[in-house]
Amino acid sequence: MKKYFPVLQHVNIPNLITTLGLAFGVAGCYFLTIGSLRGTILCLSFAALIDLVDGFLAGKLNQRTIFGQELDSLVDFFVCCIMPVLMMLVFVGNSILLICAALFACACGLWRLANYNITASEKRAYFTGLPVPGGAMLLAISIWLVTYYDFPTWFCALVFFLTGLLMVSS
User: I want to staple 160 with a disulfide (CB 3.0 to 4.6 A). Which of 27, 32, 33, 101 is the partner?
Assistant: First the structure.
C-alpha cells in the first residue's frame, strides 16, 4: 500500500491527532461562515488543546519526526494565525489599523513557526516567545471583548500588535 501512497509511512498517533486539530480548524471556519463567534472560539480552543496533546504524545511514544513537526506547523499556521485574522475581519471590522495589526500578528506567527522548525532541525529545539496557540487564544479573547463587551476596536488592534511582538520575542 505504501508503494502507491508513500505518505502513509508517516501515519502515527501524534500525526493523526494533529490532523484532528485541522478538523477543528475547518469546523471553526464553518462557524465563521454562519456568524457564530462562540462556535469559532470553541473550535479554536479545542485545536489549541490538541496542539499540546500531539506534541506530548510524540515525545512519550518516541514518534517525533520531521514530517510531524512540519505537519504541526502547517496546522498551527492555519488554525492559530489565519483563523484569528478571519475572526477579526468578520466580527470586529476591517479598518486599515485592524488589517495592519492582523497582518503583523499573522506574519509574526509564521516567522515564529519557521524559526522553531529551523532550530528543531539543528537538534537544538527550544521555545522562544509566546507559542502560536497561546497567541491565538489571546487574540480570540480580544475579539470576544470587542464583540460582546463593547471594548473599542483599537483594543483588538493593540492586542494583535502586542501578541505578534510576544511571539517573536525572546
Answer: 101
Task: State the cell numbers at 87.
Answer: 475572526
Q: What is the pTM of this model?
A: 0.92
- Rounded Cα distance, 139 and 43, in Å: 14
Give me the residue label for grid cell 492559530: 80
CA distances, 161 to each of 32, 98, 127, 136 (Å) = 22, 10, 20, 12
Summarised one tens digit per residue, pLDDT across range 88-128 is: 999 999 999 999 999 999 999 999 999 988 887 666 556 67
- Which residue in the block uniquely carries the three cell numbers 473599542? 152
> DSSP 3-state assignment of 83?
helix
What domains can be seen in the chain, in order of their start residue? 6-168 (1.20.120.1760)
